[in-house]
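dumping this here so i dont lose it
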């Protein structure tokens, strides 16, 4: 039996609890982990990241099967999961750690992300998108209590996105 070839996708879209809850329900996403990336400190803790001094972003990194879903589809969901016009965070979560970022893992992802951002900028946002696209950096998994946070609590907990609404929109 041939092993499946999974690809990586990494996104920062505000508080990572709801973003993970959304992506873990997408067909083809095989594994999710929340953590910190893009900053300057090795092995940051939640407290370090929340202080803003590490410059890390709360992010989700996922492994997906490109035979079941595409990077383009994941980007489409990413754009639905955050406000691309908010430069200082997402929703009530303000600070560096909540910035919206697409962390690309290769040139193909970079080009695909740039194309999707440009399309949205031209069609909907008149060039005002604040979401950043940058090369993936070392990813540090968050503490265990953050992993699958909303799933463990039956969906109860703060979330800046409406996961059920986005999933419903995807089925239409």
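and the seq i came up w/
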């Amino acid at each position: 039996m041939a092993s499946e070839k999974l690809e990586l996708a990494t996104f920062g879209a505000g508080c990572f609890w709801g973003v993970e809850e959304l992506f873990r329900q997408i067909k083809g996403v095989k594994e999710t982990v929340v953590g910190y990336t893009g900053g300057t400190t090795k092995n940051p803790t939640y407290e370090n990241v929340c202080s803003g001094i590490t410059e890390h972003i709360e992010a989700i990194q996922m492994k997906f099967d490109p035979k079941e879903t595409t990077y383009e589809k994941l980007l489409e969901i990413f754009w639905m999961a955050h406000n691309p016009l908010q430069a200082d965070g997402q929703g009530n979560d303000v600070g560096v750690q909540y910035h919206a970022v697409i962390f690309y893992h290769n040139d193909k992802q970079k080009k695909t992300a740039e194309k999707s951002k440009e399309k949205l900028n031209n069609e909907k946002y008149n060039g005002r998108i604040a979401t950043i696209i940058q090369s993936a950096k070392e990813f540090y998994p968050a503490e265990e209590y953050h992993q699958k946070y909303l799933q463990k609590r039956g969906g109860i907990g703060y979330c800046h996105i409406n996961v059920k609404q986005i999933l419903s929109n995807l089925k239409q």
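Residues 38 and 81 are 20 Å apart (CA to CA).
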